[in-house]
Amino acid sequence: MAILPILRFGNPILRQKSKRVSSIDGTIQELIDDMIETMRDASGAGLAAPQIGKPLRVIVIGLPGEEPFALINPQIVKKSGERDVVEGCLCLPGYRGEMKRAVSVTAKGRDRHGKEVRVKAEKLLAQTLEHEIDHLNGVLYIDHLQGEDSLYKLHQGDPP
Ligand code: NI
Question: What three-state secondary structure class fits 130?
Fold first, then answer.
């Protein structure tokens, strides 16, 4: 396992559409392990493979206090509701943005063993799924901001 460097906003890989994974093998499982370690090291709630320079459709999610999991070739199949959220991204440290996200999201994909899974999510988990799946399409949270004032810089002493 290894902690990998996270690309910063401005790197063109972050704007690419990532490729589908055709076979879930040891290389992909190793990538998932590295992504989970990298996400934990950076205290993130999720990480998408393009963020570490691999434009593949793989995401990992690890909400505080919960077991991290991976989703390969994830797709949102249902979403409903709307709520105001504050969001950040490991590619743009020190900033937060205000936007709307769905209240609930159902996503499908494959787990690290290649098994088809469906994840029904609400609130923070739904938001994280939308955020990470956006990364696979070259979309960043700043694309969802409602106005210029919706992005702000964190100050020393603010909660992370
Ligand atoms: Ni992000």
Answer: helix
- Say which of 66, 98, 116, 132 is annotated catalytic: 132
| CATH code: domain of residue 145 | 3.90.45.10
CB-based neighbours (< 5 A) of ligand 1, an ion:
89
Distance 115 CA to ligand 1 centre (A): 25
Domain that holds residue 57: 12-153
What is the share, in percent, of the chain residues with pLDDT greater than 90? Answer: 91
Between 27 and 1, residue with greater pLDDT: 27
- Cα–ligand 1 centroid distance for 155 (angstroms): 20
Confirm whether 4 is domain-assigned: no
149 pLDDT above the threshold of 90: no
Report the pLDDT value the prediction gives residue 160, as an integer from 0 to 100.
Answer: 55
Each residue of 113-135: pLDDT tens digit?
999 999 999 999 999 999 999 99
Domain count, the chain: 1
